[in-house]
Known about the structure:
globular; 13% strand; alpha/beta; TIM Barrel; single chain; 8-stranded parallel β-barrel; 15 helices
Amino acid sequence: MIKVINLSTYQYDMDRYNNNYKNVNKFLEGNNLNAIELFGLQLYREELIPKDKIKGVHLMHYPVWLDFWNEDEDGIFEEFNSKEDIINYYGKLDKKVMVDKYREEIKIAEKLNAEYAVFHVSNVRTKHCFNYEFTYTDKEVVDATIEIVNEIFRGLNTNITILFENLWWPGLKMTDPELVRYFIENIEYEHKGLMLDTGHLLNTNLDINTEEEGIDYLIETVKNLGDMKDYIKGIHLSKSLSGKYVKNQIEKYKKIEIDSNKANNEIIYHILKIDEHKPFTSNKINNLIEMINPKYLVYEFITTSLEELSNFIKIQDKVLGL
């Protein structure tokens, strides 16, 4: 099992390491970390992040993309105010731009000798992040993802493994074993698997109140996958117990109209309240990891400093006996 840490090329991450790959290496060694899962491929520079430590990459993620892919103008303009906004978000007005961008990132990943690339399977309009009144079903998101992924890899000369990550928005939640099977079996690309995000899976159950309940839910859900469990090649490990907060938000936004501009301004804070990215503190999480036996164990924490990140890593290491 390879112990990995997530790291982005964004300035707030790079500033922590004084924009120097030597400091990244020092942090990895000091915290007994084997490798990096990199996000933000377009901004990668070798003097900032050591190339030889990159084991996986996280491909770009469009939280809202299905209206654009389906060329549904009414749906698109429920999310965007103008064609200029659409271009700023996707790059062009032609949906093929998404395929081209993913192909470009996969080619960069290959140059970095990454073993795997993570792809989110999800879609949600910004305002629906607050009221949970979603436009599309899980099946509709999965069908569209099958379509775009098959298009991305058609004729692409690559052997990189693509690992599909679950979210709690409509799409691949991991809670429906038959939908997981349908999805995997219809992806034409040979080198495929799943990246189980424990925090995202916990976010699908708003009735979880304690860590123990959450771990039981994770174990039960993975058991229910049956032989599809064998496709889980990696785990994004973090804890999220935000059910009470989400319930309060849903109730709040049932009573008021959601202002799109306000929603856009508050969305990052809101998502961070839902998806907490904290370490597990119960030894019981070992049962899940032993059951899956992943090739990649990715610590995916959100912190305000390197000191806090080191502390979270120490907490997780102690619990896992690493």
